[in-house]
Amino acid sequence: xxxxxxxxxxxxxxxxxxxxxxxxxxxxxxxxxxxxxxxxxxxxxxxxxxxxxxxxxxxxxxxxxxxxxxxxxxxxxxxxxxxxxxxxxxxxxxxxxxxxxxxxxxxxxxxxxxxxxxxxxxxxxxxxxxxxxxxxxxxxxxxxxxxxxxxxxxxxxxxxxxxxxxxxxxxxxxxxxxxxxxxxxxxxxxxxxxxxxxxxxxxxxxxxxxxxxxxxxxxxxxxxxxxxxxxxxxxxxxxxxxxxxxxxxxxxxxxxxxxxxxxxxxxxxxxxxxxxxxxxxxxxxxxxxx
Length: 290
Description:
The chain is α+β, with helices and mostly antiparallel strands. Helix content is 16%, strand content 31%. Strand 10 and strand 11 form a beta hairpin. The longest helix is centred in the last third of the chain and has 18 residues.
């Protein structure tokens, strides 16, 4: 939690309200729920922990950052994502609430198939001014190397809550062998499958994804429950004509959470979207299982 203060005494004139813009000063911290003395000159704001943010959202919008150096060099660089609240029209709303960063080696990114590729993904909580704070890490995703061949030794990714020093295993994603579909299976911490995410590979966004038009960049996924019923949707959105023609693999995803989903289920679904992007929509994954 960051604290921001400003000495307003030199700026206040008689009859004026004591209200000044927030200013950032390093080294000051406070915890969620702490309040300031109203008679103090310190101006502070409060942020929420990652779990609080996730629990109150009905959906999220995940936007991969465009990497110009990756386009120029032709080499895969570590992915970065901004995660926003979702509006009712499926677009992002306001400032991003989480930031995700890939941690992997150059060899893994550029020399391995997507389903074999190992990486870690760190998800950070963000404060209102988009300034990261050291203790703000929210979740850690880990995908080890897997020598995958067709239905043998399918890749999996674990999800761990690390907020406020925790080390809580939440569950994992598994990438099943699918013939005419794209998808991932979501398992909770009891190793019970709670969701399946599926999309037909006959969509134009899969067959002709190098074309910059919207229909060729759009892929519709269905999120299914334990009995096979569709409980929500996931949409891969266009990244824009310019980025497509430049050869960028920076994608956007619009995820609506299932009704009455717990915060743990929301966290697992958010992680599943990131695994889907790595598995099917990275440039070096063209030789994947599609």
